[in-house]
Amino acid sequence: MLHPPQTVSIGFVHGILSGVHARGQPLEPFLVEAGIAPGLLGQSDARVTTQQYARLFRVLTERLDDDFIGLLSRPLRRGSFALIARSALGAPTLQVALRRAARTFRLLQDDVVLELVCRAELAGVVVRFTEPSATPTVFLQEVLLRTAWRLMAWIVGGQLPVVRFDFAFGPPAHAGGYGKIFPAPQQFDCELSAFWFDAARLKDVVRRDEAALHVFLADAQAHMIVPRRTDEGIGARVRSHLQHAQPAWPDLVATAAALHVTVSTLQRRLALEGTSFQALKDELRRDTAIQRLSTSTVPLAELADELGFANSSAFQRAFKCWTGSAPGSYRRSGGL
């Protein structure tokens, strides 16, 4: 299956680097090794590919020898995450797996406790910091929630729908990208960061073994931090159709016909998912352009044609609107 390219906001890149930045270490070597242009850090609307994003996390864990990339008061040596995951494998249910993983995590560091809380029909994994006066970074809370959720979802077979994400901070500048990282209703300025799910799922059977863990760990960063694009919903069908139709880039009418729905039905169903045909089309063209600029030396005129623009000037105007910078500058920053 051909998957559309994805990108993430530069705000998440700043987050990944926050531990290194707080220690006064230079950021450029890590970015260069991950294939990310250091100049993009200064562009608030810039984006990087999900491959670059996951690669940066991997580079940081390897160079720092720290599975939590400098975010905690002392390093979690490489292999710590594998130990946490392995501690949950032999559990009979999700509830026991959660408690075992949380206990192992607590043994490895002093800063944070993951607590399982039950309220009526909901179960929650709550992030509680041991030093009340400490102000943990936004990214540390983001990565703790995302990692705990995705690990437990994987443990029980891949799916653990979240009812709500709570964040103990206000909406960050990159909150517009939260929908893909945290695909459920979100509440900010909460007392504690947490994710909540149906308490009945605590009885789910653990379905993974040591062999499955070995495969999972081979690309753990992508599993944990890269947004998972759902294959469900009308938006996913539109993205898939546009991806397969390239470089034709069909319009709304042609796409509705290809999906065997009326134009009004397609528009209404996309609106229910919080998007529109033009937004999906522009998102795909933006992400394709960033990926091509990051990985090739394709001429801008040729890329404009691939993306369905009338000419290079029209493409460059659109790209600047999407990312805040011209494609030529973006490419030069990347050293291509």
UniProtKB/TrEMBL annotation:
GO molecular function, one term: transcription cis-regulatory region binding
Keyword annotations of the record: DNA-binding, Transcription, Transcription regulation
Gene3D superfamilies attached to this UniProt entry: Homeodomain-like
Pfam family, one: HTH_18
InterPro entries named among the record's database cross-references: AraC-type_N (IPR032687), Homeodomain-like_sf (IPR009057), HTH_AraC (IPR018060)
PROSITE patterns: HTH_ARAC_FAMILY_2
Keyword Cell division attributed: no
Alphabetized SUPFAM superfamilies for the sequence: Homeodomain-like (SSF46689)
HTH araC/xylS-type domain ranges (all copies): 232-333
Annotated GO CC locations: cytosol
Protein name, UniProt field: AraC family transcriptional regulator
Species of the source: Variovorax boronicumulans
